[in-house]
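Complex record, three chains
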Amino acid sequence: MKSRFNLLHFSAIAILEIVIFFLVMIFLNIESVWTLIFLLLAVVGVVIFAKIYRPQFESMTRFFSDNRPTVLGILIVLLFLFPLISPLMIRQNTYWLLVLVQAGIYIILALGLNIQLGSTGLLNLAVAAFYGIGGYTAGLLSLRLGAPSIITLPLAGIGAALFGMLLYVPLYKTKGHYMALVTLAFGYMVVLALDNTEFTGGPQGLMAIPELKFFGYSFLTKPGGLHFYTNYYYFVLVFVLLAIVISYCFYNSWVGLTLATIRDDEIAAKCCGVNSHVWKGISFVTGNVMIGFAGAIYAHMIGFISPPNFHFGESLLIVAMVLLGGLDNILGIIIGTLILSILPEKMRVITEYRILIYGILLIVIPMFRPGGLLPFKPRLYHSSVAEGEGKGRRNSDATQ
Amino acid sequence: MQHNKKRIFYSKNLEMNFGGLYALADINIDVYEKEAVGLIGPNGSGKTTFFNVITGVYKATGGAFYFMDKNLLGKEPYEIAKSGISRTYQSSRLCLDLSLLDNILIGMYNNQTAGYFSSLFNRRRLIAEVRRFKNRAVELLNIFNPELIDRMFRPVGELPQIDRRRVEICRAMAGRPKIILLDEPSAGMTPDETKELMEDIKKVRSTMEDVSIIVVEHDMSVISTVSERVIAINFGKEIARGTYEEVSNHPEVRKAYLGKEV
Amino acid sequence: MGTEAVIIQILLNGFMLGVQYALIAVGFTLFFGVLDIINFSHGDVFMLGAFVGLTLINLFTKLGWMGGGIYPLTLFMIFFFCMLITGFLGILFERFAVKPVSESPPLMSLLATLGLAIAIREAVRLFYPMGSESKRFPELLAPIFAGTSKAFEIKGVLLRYDTLLIFGIGVAVIIVVSLYINKTMIGLGIRAVAQDSEAAMMMGVNRDMVVDVTFFIGSALAGLTGILNGLFYNTVIFDMGAMAAVIGFSAAVIGGLGNIYGAIIGGFVFALTQAFSAAFIPRGSEYMDVVAFGVLIIFLVFKPSGILGEKMHERV
C-alpha cells in the first residue's frame, strides 16, 4: 500500500490515545455522581461541537481512518498494558478489572448475536439460553467428568451450536413474529428445564466450577503479584480481538453480503441463487458458537452458575446492546456494549433502575434512532477494492 | 416462425391456483434463444404470477415448464436462478440500505468461489475475486449510467427511481443468465424516463447477444420497441400471439383492454 | 381417585387457566389486527390489572366498604374501576409507545413493546410499596358463598363455587366482547381496520379512534384477567406478566393471529396441554411448561397460520 510509516502521525496518534487512556482511568476513579453527570454533559457537548464543526471533525476522523493500523496497534498495546498500569491508577482496581472482563464477555456475546440479528435479521430471543447452554456444558464437563479447560471451552461452543441446529429445524420454517416466538419459547424451555433437572443442579445450579487451567497454569495464579483476574483479562481480551477479527472478516466478504441480502429482501436473494435456508442456518450456528464459548468463559471465571443468570431479561440486555450500538456495525456494537455494561456499574445510584433504563432504551431507540448509535457503513471488503474507479468512497466515508 | 433458432424455454399447460382462483390456466409460452418476447395483458391477468411461477417464488399447481430441456417445476428459486434465469421486479426489490455495489455483486452469487472458510482463512483469494466482480459491476454501470460508478459505495436508497431500475437490471445481468425476465420495467417512470429505459433495454441486448428477454409491460410503446414477438394473456389464459401489430389489433386483446367489442 | 376423577380434575384445571389465557390472547389478536403489531407489553398490563385491583381493595378496606350489604356493590366497583383504569392505561401506552413504532420493521416494533413491558414491570417493582415481594390477594368471592355449602362434589372432585364463579365471569366477558365486536358499529370498525386499514379509512372509519377503542378493550380485558388470576392463585407478583405475555401470544398464534375465536380456542388448547402434561408425564408439574412450549413450537412448524388463521401469500 501507498502509506509509509510517518513518525509525526504515529506520535500524534500515540499521544492522543495515551491521553484518552489515562482519562478513562480517571473516569473509572470518579465516584461523585455530579462529576459523572458533568462528564456526560461534556460528552454531549463534544458531539454537538462535532456536528457544528463538521468539516474539521471529518478531516480528523479521516486522519484516523487513514492511519487505522497505527490507531489499532497502539490501542491494543494500551489494552494489554492496562492491568499493569491500573493498580497504580485506580483505587478499586480488581473490581474494575472484573467489570472489564465481563464487558469483554458481553462483547463476544453481542458480536455473536450480531451475526444472527444484525447481519441476517434473525431475532434470537434465546441468546441467554445459548449462553447458559455454553456455561452448563463447560461446568458439567469439568465437574462431572473432570475435563480440562482446553476441552470444555470448544465443547461449550459446539454444544451451543448443536442446540442451535436443533432449534433451527423449527426456526427456518417460520418467519417474523412467529420466529421470534419460537426463540422466546425455546429460551423459556431451557431455563425451565435447567431449573427442574437434578443433573444440572436444579435451581441451585452448578457450584464450584473449576477455574481455567492450561498446560498446568491455573488462572487462580497471581501473575507477578497482580490479582488473578488479570489472567482472565488477558484471556478474554485475546478472544474479544478474535471475535472482532472474525466478525470483520465475515462482514467484509461474500458471507456478509449474502446474509445482508437475505436480511433486507429474502425473495430477491433467493432469485439471485442464494439458498437462504442454508445460509440462515450457518449464520445462526456461527453466532451460537461464539455465544456458547462466552458462556464457558463466564462459568469458569465466576465458578457458579444458576438458571436465573440466563433468563429472558439477560437476552434482552444483549439485544439492547446490539440495537443501541447499531445493527451490523462492529464498532458501534462494541461501543453500545461498553456503555450498557460499564455505565451502570459506574452509576451505583442508578443500578437499581438499570433494568428500567434498558426497557426505556428499547422503546426509545427504534423511535428516534432506528439505526443505533453508528448506523449504515458501506461494505468495503478491503481498501484495495475501493481503488481505481468508484472514488465516491471518499465523500461517503466521512459523512456517516 | 423461429425454426432456425433453438427453443430454450417452454411451459406446458402451466397452472396456478390460489385457493380456487386460477391466476394461470393452461399457459403455453415458448422462448427461443436471443429473442425478446413481450407479455401483455390487463391488470390481474396473470403476467406477474407467470414470472413468480417460473422463478419458483410460487409453486405451480399444475403443468410443467422446461428450461434448456430440464423440467424446473417444483424447484426452489435458488435452483432456478442457478440454472440461468434472472429477473427484475415490478416494485423494485433492491436492498435499499446496502451499497449500489453490493446490490450488483449479489447478482453474481452463483459465480462466487470464495466461501465461508475463504472469508476467514483465504482473504487474498476472496479480495481478488471481489475486485474481479467489482470490475464487472463497473463495466455494467458504464453501459447504463457512468455517473453511478462514483456512487458505488452509497446506499441504493439515495438513487432516483430510474437509476434504481438500472441497478436492478445490472443485478439481473451480472450473473450472465440465459433469460432475463423484466417485470414492468416502466412502472413508476415518467414518459421521458420510460424512453431512456427503452434505450437501456436495447443496450442489454446489444451487450449480451445470446440472452433472451421476456418483458411484462403495460406501456405499449415499450413492448412495440423492445420485443419481436408478443403474447397477450387475460384471466390466466393466452388470448393472442404474433407480432406487435397482429396482437394489438386482435379483437380479443382490444376487448380485454377496452372491456368491449370493437 | 378414579380415572374419571383425574380427568375431571385435569379438565377443571385446564378450563380455569384456559379462560384466563383466552382473555389475554384476545388482546394480542385484537392489537395485531388493528396495528399489525405484537404488543408484548400486554402481559404487564395484565399484571397492572392485578395490582390496580389490589390497590382498590386496600382503598375500599380503608373506607370500610368491604363488608355488609354494600359488599356486592364494592365488588362490582373493584372490577369496574380496575377495567376502566387498565383500559385507559392501555390507551396511554398505545399512544406513547406502541403506535409510534408500529410502522417500523416488525423486529424493531417487537423489541420496543418488549422494552415497554420491562419498563412497566420495573416501575411496579421499584415504585409500588414493597413492589419486589409477592403479595397476598384476598379471596374476594368467598364471602358471597358464606352461608352456603361453598362447594359441591362430582365423582370425588370438590368443585368450589367461588372458583366456578371466576370461570363464569371470564366466560361471560368473552361472550360480551365477541358480541360487541360482531354486532356493534365500533366492532365493525375494528374488523374493518383489521381487514384493510387504508380501505377502512377511505370508507370514513376513524382509524385513530378505532385503535384507541381496541386498546381500551384489550387492556381492560387484561386488567380483569389480572384480578381473576389473583383470585385464582391468591397471590400476585410484579413479574407475573412475563409468562402471561408469552402464553397469551402463544395462544393467539395457536388459534391464528388476528382471529378472535382462534385466540379463545388457542387459550384453552394451551391450558389443556399444560394440564394434561402435568398429569400424565412423569414429574409433569415441573415440566408442563416445557412440554407446552414444545407443543407450541411443533405447532408453529406444521400450522404456522394457526387453527383458524388464513394462509397468506407473500406479494412479490
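Note: The longest strand of chain B covers residues 7-18.
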